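Sample 3 of the quickstart, ligand cobalt (II) ion:
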Amino acid sequence: MLKKILSIAATLIVTNSVMANDDCALVVESNSAMQFNTSNVVIPSSCSEFTVTLKNTGSLPKQAMGHNWVMTTKADSQSVATDGMGAGLENNYIKPNDERVIGATAIIGGGEETTTTFSVKDLDKRGDYMFFCSFPGHMGIMKGTVSFAS
Ligand code: CO
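Result:
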């Protein structure tokens, strides 16, 4: 029994690392426990664009447990989230035309999936970046770092 559990665990770990970063694209899962399945995103420095596909594996509608994936500099993250709260769900909790946003998906509800592609070629590859969910109240838990690998 233990051997079987260990074997399943090993399979999950391998699957996760394969899913986690495929060249210039990434699949991120979010759930009804207000969690992303990663806390550290690494973008290869050779990428000029990066694509994020966000899945919401929960079952609640976006009004109740919506998630998005937003990337900013670490310095801008809190103010972008605060301004996003005021922008409302109709703006995906992002202030319209917010130039501090490097990349962002739409807010999606349970069972939904969305993709965004954004430019990373002009970013300082040694800078401090973050990703988070801008749904009100989620950022405290739903956040992580973004960095560039040489
Ligand atoms: Co969220």
